[in-house]
Prior knowledge:
Elements: E1 3-4, E2 12-16, E3 22-24, E4 29-31, H1 33-41, E5 46-50, E6 55-56, H2 58-71, H3 79-88, H4 97-110, H5 112-124, H6 127-150, H7 163-197
Parallel strand pairs: 2-5
Antiparallel strand pairs: 1-6, 2-3, 3-4
Helix pairs in contact: 1-2, 6-7
Amino acid sequence: MADKTDTSEDTIVIKKYANRRLYNTEKSSYVTLDNLAEMVREGQDFVVIDAKSGDDITRSVLTQIIFEEESKGHNMLPTKFLRQLIGLYGDSVQGFVPGYLEASMETFTKNQDELRDQMQGAVTGNPAMAGFEALARQNMDWFDNAMRMFKPSASGASDDVEPTRTNTDQEASDVELGDLKAQLAQMQAQLSKLVDKS
């Protein structure tokens, strides 16, 4: 059931008529749900009153705005969340849900600037990607060092080692190392593409 409401001086009164038209009493003009959505984004406080009964129908109009936004493809409400929310209707904890959701959204709103900065940082310089690249470089350095230990050096080569076998082993190691480097470069390119798409 809709509530009767008292409005403050700063609250804009929107009247909804039987023909479903919405009338902004402050600007003396008809408005649409899109106009009301823009008012919400701009932080303008308004209340929607049923012109005939005087009931406060703000909640149902805001719900209608959310429905319209979702139907346009601006999906923010995951299906699982909607199922959970519907499941709470009639539950013994139903009375606690509005306060919990309101407090959660207030916290999210307070932190949204920081979240925007983090998201911007994720696009421009993904720390996970940077960490992966550093780890990949470290692994390649370790692999190079390990391979050098198995390669005889020019100055310290033993006279007992057959030169042709050493050259063959070294060439095989160089080929394997080159293949591993190429594979790693390909993986890094693929990961960069994935990061760019996100």
